[in-house]
């Protein structure tokens, strides 16, 4: 018995060493960083391994998705999790559900949350609240037409938030744009800046005070009514080598800020952050994760005493605080409380809420501020202009992929705009020289009119654009790499071939993108083909989407011979609106007969749309119609385990009718289809 145990132990060590040797140094370092919570560094290592040509395992790709989620790049996390859905379990499945919620795909999130409940993953009570929140978002997807929320004209460098009115301008946290020092999330450290407002226009920024420059982030500020005391949040080292977020105060002597003091409410055992002062200066509100709260971080209120000390913090109670995060309180002149939360019913991420003052230190009647104040991303830090209660600022990461917080301006809609109503296709209107497409991406930055040749054309920083397209091509049937698959990348504007090549034995390819194509707004048509053995694929992508495709890989569906599945490998089911056509139902009838006769076959029902209208709505429509096809087949006796409905929106077009191109209706409708893809075979 002893000799058998020793032999087994040696064999186990051998297997472990082989697994370790199968991972590159970059992946091993990435795993180490990941386990230490250093997600930015972990992502750097994983991507370095991928760029070096390493075939990343499913588990590593799941960790990459988690890194994006922890770095608040929800869109990228959602896309990666969606590709890996069949491999997710436990906490990874719950994180995918949360990313789907944050992406704004509420019905998909409901399905995933229910799957978590069925599998005993997570806290059931909290998950039911999240499901309720998604259901609420589906029922309340409309705009408050009285206000506009647009990107502000503040000249910042990528990251800025936590704005407050001060004297004749505003103070906020922002990065300088010229520092190589970053935090564990890859963000440049923030300092406090001041921008004056003249004739309603925000002027250039300047550092608020040289005395308030620290080695770590500083922000989330509040002023007393006389503007002589300022409270702010910053991270500090504590005994034991860790760090805590604490609130400090400084005083203004008429010329400079100084005399920093740590507030007595702080502790080395918990965080205190996001201070707010009531308009009568009697109380300080803040957020903390101290013991005894209702969830992650709760809102507290504490009395400001004349001697500069503070009373005992009091939790604002369950009417305000939830199992989630409550942050960024602000008390208006009418004593109404505005705050951010991801625990109350909302659209995803942090939403801005309003609570009515009930006297003393009590607030209730919490209500969501609705769109356009809120979005499916993080929206927080709402403050009101002291000279005009209908104007203000808030912070949000709703632009782009969700990785950057910026400051938005809130203003009332004009009478003419109110009469015209607001579009539910867009959550913001152009402002400050910026134009946005329906996904919220900046597409044009208008320039002020200047004299010809007044300034030289600035050089384009090519490092911000991908210099190569690297990916792996696999079979949808069994996941094996496809050798000699031909990939052609064309300039979508003129059809000119940019670069082309074939995959190697491992299904991988690395194509260099010429510098002249590395520019803002560049789109490519990418086609992947492998003779008659596989069904070819074509897609229209923006240059910034190349990295996403590189990470996710490309899968081609085999054309099966008559011994296996040639009866269904080419089935295409048309639909109109969200309704499957009569012709489509006939094709589904044939598919049902086949699946009933071959219960070991699992198919994907991949739904696609044309490239018109709102991209997000197209994604929703495609998912809905894929599920309708699944429901139809279930009425024909097909087991749910034999079908996987997936919506891909407008990503995969079958013709050249990409976004913005004039095509007749029939051509657009060719792209509105459900494709039947053989996914795998069940063990018989």
Walkthrough of the structure:
Pfam families: OmpA, PD40. It comes from Marinilabilia rubra. Residues 560-682 form the OmpA-like domain. Keywords: Cell projection, Cilium, Flagellum, Membrane. The protein has 684 residues and is of the alpha+beta class. The chain folds into 4 domains: 21-139, Serine Threonine Protein Phosphatase 5, Tetratricopeptide repeat (Alpha Horseshoe), CATH 1.25.40.10; 147-439, Neuraminidase; 461-559, Sandwich (Immunoglobulin-like); 562-684, OmpA-like domain (60s Ribosomal Protein L30, Chain: A). The protein is built from 13 helices and 36 strands. Strand 32 and strand 33 form a beta hairpin. Helix 5 crosses helix 6. The longest helix is centred in the C-terminal third of the chain and has 21 residues, at 615-635. The model is unreliable at 6-21, 416-457 and 561-565 (pLDDT under 50).
